[in-house]
Automatic annotation (TrEMBL):
It comes from Ideonella margarita. Pfam families: OEP (PF02321). This is TolC family protein. Belongs to the outer membrane factor (OMF) (TC 1.B.17) family. Gene3D superfamilies: Outer membrane efflux proteins (OEP). Residues 323-370, 395-422 form a coiled coil. The keyword Membrane does not apply.
Length: 431
C-alpha cells in the first residue's frame, strides 16, 4: 500500500476558502513545498541503502580506512623527498688521556646523506601512487562485497516477511470459512465432520503462521547482526518507505568499471611498480659524507682543521635482494592472471543476472495472472458456499489454490526485486 506523506498538508492544499488572505495561501503553499522536498529527499535514500551504510560503518575496513590513507599519504611524501632516508649526523672525539695524556685531541663532526639510486626516486613515486589507487579500489571492492552480503540478507528477510503475510492471509481466510461452516452446521445444512475439516484447516494455517513467523524473525536477526542495527530500527526503515526497498533496473547495462575488477587491476599495477622498483634497488643506498676535523697533536700546539668530502657506494646486491625481486615479479604475474579470470567471471555473471531478471519478470506476470484468477474464483465459490450451492471440500480446495497463488505472486515480486538487485550487484553498482 502506497503511503501519502504529510496528509494534513495535502488537505490544506485541497481546501479552499474564498476569504483567506493571499499571504496565508502563499505561506501554506511554501510550507507544503518544503515538506514535499523533505519527503522527496528522504525517499531518495532507500531503506536498503540505509542498511548498507550502517553495515559499512562497522566493518574493519571502514574503521582502519583513515589510518591506511594516512599511511599511503606518508608513503607518497617519502617518495617525493630529496633523499631515500633522513640524513645522519656523525660526531667522534679522539684523545690520549687514558694512556700518554700529552694533550692530543681529534674532534670530527660530519653529515651523512643517503642518495637515490638512478631511477629509484621516480619508481618510488610511481609505486606510491599505485598503492594509493590500489587502496581506494580495494576499499570500493570491499564496499561492493559487503553490498552483496547486505542485499542477500535483505531479500532473505523480505521473502520471509512475504511468506508470513501470505500465511496470515491464509489464516484469516480459513477462519472465515470455519465461521461460515459453523453457521451452516447450526442450520443443519452441514455435518459435524465438515466443521472438523474447517477447524483442521484453521489449525494448519496457524501452524504455517508460526513457522513463517520464526523464519521471518531469524532472517531479521541475521540482517541485524550484519548491519549492527536493532530489529525495531530495521522495521521502521522498511515501513517508512512503504515498499520492500526495491532498486530500479540499471539504466546502463554496458560493461562498467567493476570495483572488484578495478581492485585487481590496481593491485596488479602496484605489483608491477614494486617489481620495477626492486629491480632498481640492486643494493643499499649510496651515501654522501661531508665532515670537518679539528686536530691538536699535544697540549699547547695549534689546532688544525680539515674537511672531508666522500661517497660511500655499496658493491653489487645480495641473495636476499634477488629473492625480493623474484617475489615481486611473481606477484605481478599472479595479479595479471587474476585480472583476466575476474574479467571473464564478471562477464558471465552479468549475462546470467540479466537472464535471471528477465525470467523473474515473466514469472511475476504469470503468477499475478494466476493469483487474479484464483482470487476471483474464490469469490465465486465463497458466495455459492454461503448459498448452499457448493460443498465444503470444494471450497477448501479453492481457498488452498487461491492462497497458494497469492503466495506465489508475492514470492515472484520479491524474486524479481532480488534479481534486479543481483543484476546491479553484477554490474558493480551499490544500493
Amino acid at each position: 500500500m502506497t503511503r501519502t506523506p504529510f496528509p494534513l498538508v495535502g488537505a490544506q492544499l485541497r481546501t479552499h476558502h474564498p476569504r483567506r488572505p493571499s499571504w496565508l495561501k502563499l505561506a501554506c503553499i511554501t510550507a507544503a513545498a518544503s515538506h514535499l522536498c523533505v519527503a522527496s529527499a528522504q525517499a531518495q535514500t532507500s531503506p536498503l541503502r540505509q542498511v548498507f551504510d550502517a553495515a559499512w560503518a562497522m566493518q574493519p575496513e571502514a574503521v582502519a580506512l583513515a589510518t591506511r590513507q594516512a599511511a599511503a599519504s606518508a608513503e607518497q611524501q617519502a617518495a617525493n623527498a630529496w633523499t631515500p632516508w633522513p640524513a645522519a649526523v656523525e660526531l667522534s672525539n679522539q684523545t690520549d688521556r687514558l694512556n700518554r695524556n700529552v694533550g692530543m685531541q681529534e674532534l670530527e663532526l660530519g653529515v651523512s646523506v643517503p642518495l637515490w639510486l638512478p631511477g629509484e626516486r621516480n619508481r618510488s613515486q610511481t609505486l606510491a601512487a599505485a598503492q594509493q589507487r590500489a587502496l581506494d579500489s580495494r576499499t570500493a571492492a570491499a564496499r561492493l562485497k559487503l553490498a552483496g552480503a547486505v542485499r542477500e540478507a535483505w531479500w532473505a528477510w523480505q521473502r520471509a516477511a512475504a511468506e508470513l503475510d501470505a500465511a496470515q492471509a491464509q489464516l484469516r481466510t480459513a477462519r472465515t470459512t470455519a465461521t461460515d461452516a459453523g453457521k451452516r452446521v447450526k442450520a443443519g445444512e452441514l455435518a459435524r465432520a465438515d466443521q472438523h475439516q474447517a477447524d483442521s484447516a484453521v489449525a494448519a494455517a496457524e501452524g504455517l503462521v508460526a513457522q513463517a513467523s520464526a523464519a521471518q524473525a531469524g532472517a531479521l536477526q541475521q540482517l541485524a547482526a550484519l548491519t549492527g542495527l536493532n530489529t525495531s530500527r530495521l522495521i521502521d526503515a522498511h515501513q517508512a518507505i512503504g515498499d520492500a526497498g526495491g532498486e530500479p533496473p540499471p539504466a546502463d547495462t554496458s560493461e562498467p568499471g567493476h570495483a572488484a575488477l578495478q581492485a585487481l587491476q590496481d593491485s596488479a599495477a602496484a605489483s608491477e611498480a614494486a617489481a620495477l622498483l626492486a629491480a632498481t634497488q640492486q643494493g643499499a643506498s649510496p651515501e654522501l659524507k661531508l665532515a670537518t676535523t679539528r686536530t691538536r697533536s699535544a697540549a699547547g700546539e695549534p689546532t688544525q682543521q680539515t674537511w672531508t668530502l666522500g661517497v660511500r657506494w655499496p658493491f653489487g646486491g645480495s641473495a636476499a635482494q634477488s629473492a625480493r625481486q623474484a617475489n615481486a615479479r611473481a606477484d605481478a604475474l599472479e595479479q595479471q592472471a587474476l585480472v583476466a579470470l575476474e574479467r571473464q567471471r564478471l562477464s558471465t555473471e552479468r549475462a546470467a543476472a540479466q537472464a535471471r531478471t528477465e525470467a523473474a519478470r515473466a514469472q511475476l506476470a504469470a503468477a499475478q495472472r494466476r493469483a487474479q484468477l484464483a482470487v476471483e474464483t474464490r469469490g465465486f465459490f465463497e458466495k455459492s458456499f454461503r448459498l448452499g450451492e457448493t460443498d465444503l471440500p470444494t471450497r477448501l480446495r479453492i481457498e488452498a489454490d487461491a492462497a497458494d497463488a497469492e503466495r506465489q505472486a508475492a514470492r515472484a515480486r520479491i524474486d524479481l526485486a532480488a534479481a534486479i538487485s543481483a543484476w546491479r550487484q553484477a554490474l558493480g553498482l551499490l544500493p
